[in-house]
């Protein structure tokens, strides 16, 4: 049966832990002229539910004497968000001015004419300031149609204390660089000495398994679709076919490994995170939100291998009705992070080819100006404010999502809350970031590929490579959209 689960990938709920430790030095003056007076014009911003609260705050900051910017929350599920925006666009809803798009919707909305191309000055400014990986997701046919608002990339998370027992040595202060073959090998060795064995990944029949496959594929030197957004390249050359088979072989190896998670074929980001916290997992690939989550749950006594954090229960999990909950001091935050990282540590995403960094799939949200807007000039002005440095800090600090501006990753106070900041930035560069196929047919392609990839590991990689090619071609041809 087809699983109709669809979650926002690379976008997580607001987390207190991501915000703590940041001081007043983080404050940045907003664009000149930003105020709150209503000049008669209202610009409506539709944002995904996960980040809507923070977007509403930024929208108020971006209101001026000439117009008011108002944020609105879209439905919780990504499919429902896309459907609502598409219906508003096709219905010529003149009240829709700025839209928040999953990064893999840009091409579809641009090709359909639902969002407007960017003015040259804004596009040129983005090239100078926005990280290369996120900026790729805002393009269609060499034209910028959206502005990255926040981004994301997956890392490898691991039980440091348990892996040290497997390796028979202490893991040094530098980032641990592993291949997928080593991940599987070490999980097996951990089981032999009575340690955790599970490798948590997003393997359920939803967008997550396509993201995993895309990262492995591009890391192996392959691609799903060529730059023209039309040509399927999964098996068009011997080299591309080999990359596709290699990516599928890794999924199969993880899905069938001894000691695997019995719920592996149903894992999404949330269940991967929670299963890791039980102590049964040695490795996990997931977005950075898991670091804040494990600290909160550890303090609440829900993580058996992080009881050291329970003394911070009231600090990390204040009562919901608390009017002015305390935040950790810098010293407390450092201790919380250090205690956590003795047991739960992060590393670069595992490589497919030894010695060659992985190319991780970019997540996040882009903002575009809707074709339905009555105030194009003002809408682009507001969009520039919604993605300026002050806005980016709010999305990162209050929303818990990585910023798209490279300079923010060097801020000392920001790095206290995001000890994995350097790895995130490194994985969002030109040669280390992968994007899902930039094509208007992506949604159809993803649906068909999910149906083929699930249940994860139940297939032969060589056979499935051909089946995926046929499914991707059907999507391009507008056929077989119901798996």
Q: Any key phrases for this structure?
A:
globular; four-stranded mixed beta sheet; 13 strands; D-Maltodextrin-Binding Protein, domain 2; single chain; alpha/beta; five-stranded mixed beta sheet; 483 residues; 20 helices
Could you provide a short overview of the structure?
The chain has 20 helices and 13 strands. The strands form four sheets. The protein has a five-stranded mixed β-sheet. A four-stranded mixed β-sheet has the order 8-9-7-10, sandwiched between helices.
Write the layout of secondary structure elements.
Layout: H1 16-19, E1 42-47, H2 52-61, E2 68-73, H3 78-90, E3 98-102, H4 106-111, H5 120-129, H6 132-136, E4 139-140, E5 143-144, E6 147-152, E7 155-159, H7 160-167, H8 180-192, E8 198-200, H9 207-219, H10 238-255, H11 269-277, E9 281-286, H12 289-299, H13 313-316, H14 330-343, E10 344-347, E11 360-361, E12 363-369, H15 376-386, H16 389-399, H17 412-417, H18 421-426, E13 433-434, H19 442-453, H20 461-477
Parallel strand pairs: 1-2, 1-3, 8-9, 11-13
Antiparallel strand pairs: 3-12, 4-5, 6-12, 7-9, 7-10
Helix pairs in contact: 2-16, 9-10, 10-20, 19-20
